[in-house]
Design a protein that fits this description.
This protein is about 30% helix and about 50% strand. It is of the alpha+beta class and about 140 residues long. The protein has a six-stranded mixed sheet with strand order 2-1-6-5-4-3, covered by helices on one side.
Length: about 140
């Protein structure tokens, strides 16, 4: 009887251990964008996710994932610095600075950005609901 009960008691612990932490989810967001893996990235984004680009353009989940899947957008560099995580119950704000490079519609670009990402814990997993970036100007001596 104990042999049957022990696995049942361990199952919730194993499921919890496999649930990514907020920090892991945020790391996965960057890693999967670099890999261009739209299908693996999709569950990290809420259905109503919005991305506000540094030029003010707003993009929805389906459009962003299609750009990645079709390679219209290829990220070649994402280096985050000064990352701070502030958690408020089931909601978290991740901020920092990011140096990025990519090719969008055949045009290479690069820049330094300040970002804000909003994550919500839903059904035991973190999902991003919004992301915003602002391009930083050149630093002066």
């Amino acid at each position: 009887m104990r042999a049957l009960i022990a696995p049942l008691l361990l199952f919730p612990l194993l499921a919890w251990a496999q649930t990514p932490t907020l920090e892991q989810a945020d790391t996965d967001w960057n890693r999967l964008r670099l890999q261009g893996d739209a299908s693996a990235l999709a569950p990290l984004l809420a259905e109503d996710w919005l991305l506000t680009h540094s030029d003010g353009r707003v993009q929805r989940k389906a459009d962003y994932l299609q750009e990645l899947a079709t390679r219209q957008r290829r990220n070649t560099r994402i280096d985050n610095q000064d990352v701070q995580v502030r958690r408020y119950g089931d909601t978290a704000i991740v901020t920092g600075t990011s140096v990025q490079a990519a090719v969008s519609d055949g045009q290479p670009w690069e820049g330094r950005f300040r970002f804000t990402r909003v994550w919500v814990l839903r059904e035991g997993r973190w999902q991003m609901v919004a992301s915003h970036s602002s391009r930083l100007g050149e630093t002066r001596p």
